[in-house]
Amino acid sequence: MNNKFWKNIWESKGNSKSDDLLFLDGYEHLQIEFNSKDICASIITLADIKQGDRILEVGCGAGFLARELQEYSYVGVDYSESIIKKHKDLFPSHNATISEANLLNYENNSFDVVFCFGLFQYLPNKEYADKTIQEMYRVGKRGIFLGDLKTKKTRKEHFVYSMSELQEKGFKISSCVYDCNDVERFNAYRHKGDIT
User: Fold this and answer.
1) Which value, to the nearest 10 degrees, does the dihedral of the CA atoms of residues 126, 129, 135, 139 take?
2) Are 188 and 129 in contact (CB under 8 A)?
3) Does the pLDDT at position 35 exceed 70?
4) Could you give the C-alpha distances from 165 to 39, 43, 146, 150, in angstroms and in order?
5) DSSP 8-state class, residue 9
């Protein structure tokens, strides 16, 4: 698949006049209750995020989840320049920068917890996904959380990472944090000391 397919979509959303975070961050099609406070509360519990933790969100988009996490030392990255610009326009105080998920510009162990939510289906291939996991693990002190992974593609352009392969890599699997109506979804978490 063309690696630019999804990036072009995110750039187009970022360049739009919309300030609808569900649209900008790709959740508008779900047609279900989708609450950022509830989702973040679940991520905080599942990823064992503590008060005062430094956290990194990979694929932060325009700030749908970031707006709920500002009481932490939060940093967000996204590969779309226009989405990061939109994020900063909507939330000027947020720390959000441009970065590829598979090449994070941070030192080893820079963050207590590194997480993504709804990112993996937009990655171009398994090689990129594996490098993303390695990078998230490298910059995280305690562990990484991969949220909202799909078990099946809902578009031919989606990437799906096998649950069993993630388990083989030492990830613990948990149920999706919201009721989705298009396909089964799950989360994966790996502590720093778990199998690589």
Assistant:
1) -150
2) no
3) yes
4) 25, 22, 13, 13
5) H
Strands in 73-78's sheet, in edge-to-edge order, are 96-98, 73-78, 54-58, 111-117, 140-150, 185-191, 172-175
| Cα four-point dihedral sign 140, 142, 147, 153 | positive
Q: What's the rounded mean pLDDT across residues 168-178?
A: 89
Enter the pTM of the model: 0.93
Dig out the tokens for 165 from the structure.
């392969």
Q: Left (φ > 0), alpha (ψ -120 to 50) or beta: where does 31 sit?
A: left
Q: CA separation (Å) from 126 to 11, 43, 74, 122?
A: 23, 24, 27, 11
E strand residue ranges, the chain = 54-58, 73-78, 96-98, 111-117, 140-150, 172-175, 185-191
